[in-house]
Amino acid sequence: MTPIRKNYNQNWLPSIFNDFFDNDWMVKANATAPAINVLESDTDYKVEVAAPGMTKEDFNIHLSEDNELVISMEKKNETKEENNNNRKYLRREFSYSKFEQALVLPDDVEKDKISANVTDGVLTVDLPKRTPEEKAKINRVIEIH
C-alpha cells in the first residue's frame, strides 16, 4: 500500500486529515490513542480530544518552533492490594497511557489567546482567529523610503 504523501501547500485542515490517516502515523498509533475532533467557526477553531478519566494534570500543550500545536498526555496508574490471610502477598496492576499529536496551526490563529480546559473527559483547545483588523496589521504594505 502506498503511503499518503503530505502536501504542505494545501490548506491546514486537509493536512491534518492526511496526518491522521497517513500510514506512518497508523503504524505508530497504539490502542490508547484518543479520538480527536477539529471544528471551525467564523471566530475560532476548536480541537477536542476524547480523554475519559484524564485530568488537566495529565496533559501538556505547547506551541513548537514549527508553528504546531503539540498535545501530549501521560497517565500512570498503580494499584496495590495486600491480602492478610495466612499468606502475605502484594498484587500490583500497572496502567500506562501516553499520547502525543502535533497539529499544524493555520496562519489566522491568534496564538497569544489559545486556551484549553478539560470537562467530562474531553480536552478542548480553543484557537481564536484573528479579527479582520488584526489580519490587516499583519498583511500591511511596507513603504520603501
TrEMBL record:
InterPro entries: A-crystallin/Hsp20_dom, HSP20-like_chaperone, Small_HSP. Residues 26-145 form the SHSP domain. Pfam families: HSP20. It comes from the Bacteria. Belongs to the small heat shock protein (HSP20) family. This is Hsp20/alpha crystallin family protein. It comes from Phocaeicola coprophilus DSM 18228 = JCM 13818.
